[in-house]
Design goal:
With 435 residues, this protein is an alpha/beta fold. It has 16 helices and 14 strands. The strands form two sheets. Strands 1, 2, 3, 4, 5, 6, 7, 8 and 9 form a nine-stranded mixed β-sheet that branches. A five-stranded mixed β-sheet has the order 11-10-12-14-13, with helices on both faces. The longest helix has 31 residues.
Length: 435
């Protein structure tokens, strides 16, 4: 291996013995070979260190950085980059799979687009056993726009998919080093992607070359757990974590390239702040209670109260969606429901209501383009569905699939709009010409 490879791949890992060797071997089998692989072991307590030693002995491109104590996910990701020396950099998860052409295709895309800051490939979701759950998905095409404000607005949007593919892209190291990198807080990966979007377009390789493995031990489900470990990883143990996230976005704007105009970035930041207003308000409440939260038994009482409040709020919004649909739409009518992850469908089992995509599609999925979403909606309308409801977990669809939203507003009748749900009456396709 050359002293300074073209690409550095950083793989943060903690207790990754189940998939680590398979994931690393997929990287070592890449058709592009001019890279180093840096495994950052975050004080694993399983067989991960032994596997790492075996991988180092088998390929001189592999080296291991071991932390004596767990430093948290965000810091471990950053540590991987800090040990890199390549012109390009890529993070890789210890459980995902890369097809042999992944790196070659991404590097080639960056070389053909010198203004682009990163390149990633389309993905498929797979089970722990490698069974394909979702065969072909990508990120939002607006991330490739030449206008940094369009890219930044898109990057600040609520997520459409379980992971942001640009996080596992091949990234130019120089603009990445100019960012704030990763710090423990909610949405720490998406905050970095938003800042990178200010530096240049994102290129999506059209081939499916990335396998995102879905299993209950990956970091995403672990972060959603109500535990001290999840708090450390997400930064929730810090005071005002969502205010720190707002501060992080503001710092990204301050560090923007000179050619990006400040005043154009303030409206998308204001929109993000409005969408996160409840979390920001909750931070202030918890901060006010913090002097008591450190004193038993107040700490347990406050945490139980907080959990009950979050559960009640979530269930109240679900009931609000169901009540609004029931009050607005006759029980004999058929409803298409877009709710982000089908959480509300269980409250509507007594009536004919289905998601936009056919049964069997992954929860939370949405057509890859506005044109596909429009076509699917009109197929539903033609087959007898009479209403469309969009619940709050999927409100981002209205903002970031503008052609879909414009089509719905133009061709279908808005019946009601609340903070939790929007309901339209679907017009028959043969009536479009008369509207």
């Amino acid at each position: 291996m050359a002293e300074q490879p073209m690409l550095s791949i950083g793989m943060p890992v903690f207790n990754g013995q189940r998939f680590l060797e398979t994931s690393v071997n997929a990287l070592l089998d890449q058709t592009f070979t001019d890279f180093e692989l840096i495994i950052c072991d975050n004080a694993s307590t399983d067989n991960t260190p032994t596997i790492c030693d075996r991988l180092v002995a088998g390929d001189d491109r592999v080296r291991v950085i071991r932390h004596p104590a767990n430093i948290g996910a965000a810091e471990n990701f950053t540590a991987a980059f800090n040990h890199a020396s390549g012109q390009f950099f890529k993070w890789a998860a210890d459980d995902d799979l890369h097809q042999p052409r992944f790196v070659e295709a991404c590097v080639d895309a960056l070389q053909r687009h010198p203004d682009a800051v990163l390149a990633y490939a389309r993905a498929e979701s797979i089970t722990a056993d490698g069974v394909v759950l979702r065969p072909d998905w990508g990120d939002r095409p607006q991330l490739a726009d030449h206008d940094p404000v369009v890219r930044f607005t898109t990057a600040l949007a609520p997520p459409r998919d379980p992971i942001p593919l640009p996080m596992f892209a091949v990234i130019r190291a120089e603009p990445l080093a100019a960012t704030g990198l990763l710090v423990p807080m909610p949405e720490f990966d998406r905050a970095l992607i938003a800042e990178l979007s200010l530096h240049g377009p994102f290129i999506e390789v059209p081939d499916v070359l990335f396998g995102h493995r879905e299993h209950n031990q990956r970091m995403g489900p672990a972060l959603s757990a109500d535990s001290a470990g999840a708090a450390m990883l997400l930064g929730r143990a810090r005071r005002l974590p969502h205010w720190h996230l707002l501060k992080r976005h503001a710092a990204s704007i301050r560090r923007r390239p000179a050619e990006v105009q400040l005043h154009r970035l303030l409206p998308p930041l204001a929109g993000w702040t409005w969408r996160w207003r409840r979390q920001l308000g909750s931070d202030l409440t918890l901060a006010a209670l913090q002097p008591l939260s450190a004193r038993p038994p107040f700490d347990r009482l406050i945490e139980r109260s907080r959990s009950r409040w979050l559960t009640r709020r979530w269930n109240a919004r679900r009931r609000s969606v169901a009540t609004t649909i029931n009050d607005t739409v006759s029980s004999a009518d058929r409803v298409v429901l877009v709710d982000g992850d089908a959480l509300v469908l269980g409250d509507m089992s007594h009536r004919a209501i289905e998601p936009l995509l056919p049964a069997g599609s992954p929860d939370g999925s949405f057509p890859a383009t506005a044109a596909e979403a429009i076509a699917q909606l009109e197929r539903r309308s033609a087959s007898g569905f009479t209403h469309l409801a969009i619940a709050w977990p999927a409100f981002w669809v209205r903002d970031y699939y503008r052609d879909f939203t414009n089509h719905v507003d133009q061709h279908h009748q808005l019946l009601t709009e609340t903070d939790d749900v929007v309901v339209y009456q679907l017009s028959r396709p043969d009536r479009f010409g008369s509207r």
